[in-house]
């Protein structure tokens, strides 16, 4: 049996040309759409950058003029600038600060016009205008008003392009007159504020007081029992207090002992064979120490005595 295999049919020239034509049309439409989007996006992005730059410059200018000791609108910057004056002017599209230590820029080359106008001489109001003229696009302008503190303004209302100010002393700029303020004390201030002293450390509260309030004696057969009551300043019984004593007679110590108070605040001492061993005479108990954590002993021994015949 004989089998015939057919050949696979490829694309014809006409089909190839049609496919290339469709691809060219789709690519052309995509490029056109992208071009339209880019042409609309680029001016919008550029406008946002310029507006931010103008706003930042305006805020710095207003802050300097509002706090200045002196503000004066002038026509030109002198060749030699004194140590205290700073001039705000426009140069090559940049808003600049001119001082005796150099020049610093507040903006890039984005400003077409800078002007200062006296709106109200009595109220000392100055209007500031910043303008950016964009070719083939809408201009960007920003204006604001500031009230100054001095009487250096003249009565003209003509637009000025340069403002001179003397810093207030509450702020100063760095060596190149950059616009970032830093606080420092004003040497001309007759009454500078003294720093408040740190609060002294509080003194520790006094501890509650312990005292030996009473000493009793009792002969029990041949033994002498002695009891001492320990109280606080409010006459509350204090358990767990350590008490040390000396039992003296004739100026000499017959015996010493130490004990701990019970829940009743009483500590008991027993001197065995006291009747047999102790000489006759008057005995006095001297409290040498009373201690417990969180308390302070008053150091006193209550009046007491015991006579042995």
Q: What's the gist of this structure?
A:
This protein has 309 residues and is an alpha+beta fold.
Observed structural traits:
309 residues; alpha+beta; Immunoglobulin-like; five-stranded antiparallel beta sheet; four-stranded mixed beta sheet; 2 helices; elongated
Notes on the structure:
The protein is an alpha+beta fold and 309 residues long. 19% of the residues lie in helices and 38% in strands. The protein folds into 2 domains: 59-183, no CATH class; 209-308, Immunoglobulin-like (Sandwich), CATH 2.60.40. The protein contains 2 helices and 18 strands. The strands form 5 sheets. A 5-stranded antiparallel sheet has the order 1-8-2-3-4, covered by helices on one side. A 4-stranded mixed sheet has the order 15-12-11-17, with no helix packed on it. A hairpin with a 4-residue loop joins strand 5 (113-120) and strand 6.
